[in-house]
Amino acid sequence: MVVPPPARPERVTKFLKPYILRMHFTNKYVNAQVVHTPTATVAAAASTQEKALRLAMEKEKESTRDVAAAAKIGMILAQRLLVRNIPAVTVFYNRDQKYHGKVKAVIDQLANAGVKLI
């Protein structure tokens, strides 16, 4: 049984940015997801942990954790966002993330695919 989270008060949701890009990088995998802030749900996500992608990358002897993998995740996430008619996202950086390396690869692929960054 799935119980949706309670809706936030109207006065708060007026000022929230609707879609936020969150990225998480581990020693083995790259994860990126876009969260719909007013409902606190995941609108789209992509990860190198997905079975089909992971197996394809292992077959081609590609790494699931480097900058090239992050770029591939950015492209997949951009395609999923455009299919769901989400034209723009806001980038959320963790305190240790900067616009460099894997973060840059994901963001650049989103921008190149036509997703606007707010």
What's this entry about, in short?
The protein is an alpha/beta fold and 118 residues long. The protein contains 4 helices and 5 strands; from the N terminus they run αβββααβαβ. It comes from Salvia divinorum (Maria pastora).
Core attributes:
23% strand; 50S ribosomal protein L18; ribosomal protein; 118 residues; 35% helix; alpha/beta; single chain; 5-stranded mixed β-sheet
H/I helix tally: 4
**Strand order, largest beta sheet:** 3-2-1-4-5
What is the strand tally?
5
How is the biggest beta sheet arranged?
5 strands, mixed
State the helicity in percent bands: 25-40%
* Distance between the first and last residues' Cα: 35 Å
Percent of residues in beta strands: 15-25%
Uncertain regions spanning at least 5 consecutive residues: none
Strand-and-helix sequence, N→C?
Answer: HEEEHHEHE
* Average predicted confidence as pLDDT: 88
Cα gyration radius (Å)? 15 Å
Cα shape: globular
In terms of quaternary structure, the protein is single chain
Class computed from helices, strands and strand pairing: alpha/beta
InterPro entries: Ribosomal_L18, Ribosomal_uL18_bac/plant/anim
GO cellular component, one term: ribosome
Keywords: Ribonucleoprotein, Ribosomal protein
Organism: Salvia divinorum (Maria pastora)
